[in-house]
Amino acid sequence: MVEQVTKGIRVSVDTYFEGSFSKEGLLFYAFGYKVSITNNSTDTVQLLSRSWDIYDALNAQEKVIGEGVIGKKPVLNPGQTHTYSSGCLLRSPFGAMNGYYTMINFTNSSQFQVYIPTFKLSATHLLN
């Protein structure tokens, strides 16, 4: 697990390898990740959007930007945690991801970025 705290918001990420499959003659590696976002600040906040950088050992970096997370824009009161699971496909058995969430603080109506720490994606069964 990796963790990072930005302005009192803790982001924790666990990763796992889901398997590989072939599609149209190409081999893909599927990875899952579970993210927990905990509001350790004294203010109520809402997650508005996400920005991911996905690094594949064999391919160029991919950027994914979108609203919310898995169709939700969770509101977190002080002390609350929102957890969700998602995944990505890589052409390589190794890669990494990082990024940030854009959030709004309801106390002062300001938007801010909460950083998602870099986490590794690896098909550990392929390591020596």
TrEMBL record:
Pfam families: DUF525 (PF04379). This is ApaG domain-containing protein. SUPFAM superfamilies: ApaG-like. Residues 3-128 form the ApaG domain. InterPro entries: ApaG_domain, ApaG_sf. NCBIfam families: PRK05461.1 (NF003967). GO terms for biological process: error-free translesion synthesis. PANTHER family: F-BOX ONLY PROTEIN 3, POLYMERASE DELTA-INTERACTING PROTEIN 2.
